# Entry
Amino acid sequence: MKTFSPVLAALLLLTFNAVSQTTAWNRLSAMGSRGYNLSNWLEAYWLGASYPNVLEYSRQELDALAQMGFRSVRVPILLERITSDVAPYDSVLNNAPFAIVDSVILASARENDIAVILVNHHGFELTNANWRTALPRLCGMWIALTERFRGLPRDYVFFELRNEPALDIHNDTLHILQQAIIDSIRAHDAERTLIVGANWWNAGWSLADSRPYNDAADNIIYTFHNYDPYEFTHQGFSWTGLPTGPTFAYPGKAADDIRAMFLRVKDWSLLHQVPVFLGEFGVSWFADEASRCAYIACLTDLCEVFDFPWIYWDVKHGHDAFGIFSGSSVRYSDLIPCFRNAMGLVDTVSTAGHTAAPRSVALDVFPDPVSDLASVSYTLAEPGTVLLTASDLLGREVAVLASGRHEAGTFSAVWRCAGLPPGAYIIRLSADASTNH
Ligand code: GLC
# Structure
């Protein structure tokens, strides 16, 4: 009987130098591997005059999420709607939403040592026709925000320029617009980490088809979202009108398609030597439980394999949304088990001193980058059947380095890689523990 299937991977660059450790890469590390979107709160335009709902999240809930192991929080805010639309765009930066950001969100992040992404969410629809008119205001708004948040630490507070530009703006046009915003911010702050994505609602393949931005500070992180297959992830919602019923199997064709897209994004990240993370993914509350579990395992596994930090959308609301809790409380004991396991969340409140969330065996490669010979060491926490392989970024296996049953312990394998084309390779270790061997 299989009891678990951890999958680990390391990326090797054979002849290129290792990915340079620019500020942006260091800031990506500061995000940790797992985060959550603090959604349905400061981006909730549908509340109208009741916006913002000060009771949507409490400080205790944010602290609890950090204590479960989330290392970053992405904060969608109606920045374009709650800032002044009149030059110099800085007259209303002290309203209620910003007070919540200051006194609840940033205060919790500071105390719990987690990264914060402030993202311009649900801005006005950008199009190829209106972007020139929008440009001065967007640049002015970001300059005003840059100044307002100047005092905040740069190592854990980042700005994301715009959530999900849609279809009506081409990537080339979007590039001009976002480059102008980046240049405007840089004239006021050379060190704040900025986050940008591509059109088609931040699709991964759209990012992989786009060009990176110029930044003398070399301090930009790129983002993509994945809700594919949409009919599955968005089923049953009142706001999509999609029927319930589609299922998801992992492994399976849909999972392979997502993996292929991840490969393209990783390839793009390595080609341009820029850091990338998965800023949104989620699965409808209305999907059947087995499919939800399969989906969450698929996405978190892929993020681990490709070394993309992930940020889940959205944790709280069970109904008509994507929630990860079985009830309305934000507490460890109410986490849906398969979400808790796939996300590697831990009960740090009752497990004193346990802050990390190990979910896999250890894997290490030396040297990195490699030339013609590498040593791959791996540690099994318990006996199991292992398969250690090397594959290229198209998923083609180029070598089997070890296979068979191992006792618990640390082992090493030699990878003779002379003759392989230069590039990035994935080393993957699968270990299935058996209870009846
Ligand atoms: C995007 C949208 C948000 C939606 C989410 C999931 O972030 O802006 O409104 O809930 O995707 O569909």
About this structure: The two ends are 9 Å apart (CA to CA). Residues 163-164, 280, 313 surround alpha-D-glucopyranose (CB under 6 Å). The chain has twelve helices and 16 strands.
